[in-house]
Amino acid sequence: MGNLAERAHGRWREILPALGIDAKALVNKHGPCPVCGGKDRFRFDDKNGSGSWFCNQGHGGEHDKAAGSAGNGVSLVMDFKQCSFPEAARLIEGIIGKADNDRPPTMPVVDEEQAARERYQQTIALWRSGIAIRSGDPADLYLRSRVGPYRATRALRLIPETVFAGRSMPALLSAYVDVHGELCGVQRTFLTADGQKAKGIEAPRWNTGTLPEGGAIRLASHDNTLGIAEGVETALAATALYGVPCWAALNAGRLEAWEPPEGVRNIVVFGDADLNYRGQQAAFNLAHRLSRKVQGRPERVVQVAIPDELGIDWNDVLKRDRLAA
């Protein structure tokens, strides 16, 4: 039968649509990303038949999007299905194994409602497996190392032990809710016991569930003033610097699509100063959309704050200022 990589070689335009990825995305030009939802940041170039691809926006956390995400056909299946390597291999085998046996190619029958229910149940179970963050635990040590003192929030938890890529480790859990405040997704930031980011794994962060546009990680309560940033650490840093309650949208694409809750009239968009200007673009696009007027009067007052150096975010600014103090 040969190994999986050899048998999948040159067949990714057959395999990926059979697993649910739109065939329109599998052309060698920029277009919508099947994973993160970015409108024109994804390109499938399939170099040497490897299924290679690149997404300028990134599929992970706040720093991943600056450098982008890239990989081969297997990693695209893992990102799209949000599954482990063994599970991705099983799915791919299910497609090419049929072809190897000279069976006519068929699209898999997928019960979308059942799949959505299972995904939701997995998300709820993951969140419920977390516990409140306590002083000195891995999540607390990690957050303090990144932003210093922070205000406790129900949007963050610690899972003392979670398995990813064959390894067991603690992780910071972040709850992503939709515009109605309903839990939809959970992001895991993998850690060491002493509160450092876990090393030696391909994805330092991993999202479970769905991340619908308009939603966010609601890190703080608010009145009529609220900030929005990309990553969790960036949002906490913005609060530490300016005293503004701030939520996290996770990446530039979701920052652009964020919807503020009712009653918020003063919004501060804390954009990243990306080298490719994606963070700045997202911040100003959001501000433009939220600054619409009703009957000639501003509905909201929207400000945009961008760090004064390229290649940094507000967490970097906070750490820089503390070192200079």
TrEMBL record:
Q: Where is the DNA primase/helicase Gp4 N-terminal Bacteriophage T7-like domain?
A: 28-63
What biological process terms from GO does the record include? DNA replication, synthesis of primer
A GO molecular function annotation here is: helicase activity
* Recorded GO CC terms: DNA-directed RNA polymerase complex; primosome complex
Question: Highest taxon of the source?
Answer: Bacteria
What keywords tag this UniProt record?
DNA replication, DNA-directed RNA polymerase, Nucleotidyltransferase, Primosome, Transcription, Transferase
What is the name of this protein?
Toprim domain-containing protein
Provenance organism: Devosia ureilytica
What high-level taxonomic lineage is stated for the organism? Bacteria, Pseudomonadati, Pseudomonadota, Alphaproteobacteria, Hyphomicrobiales
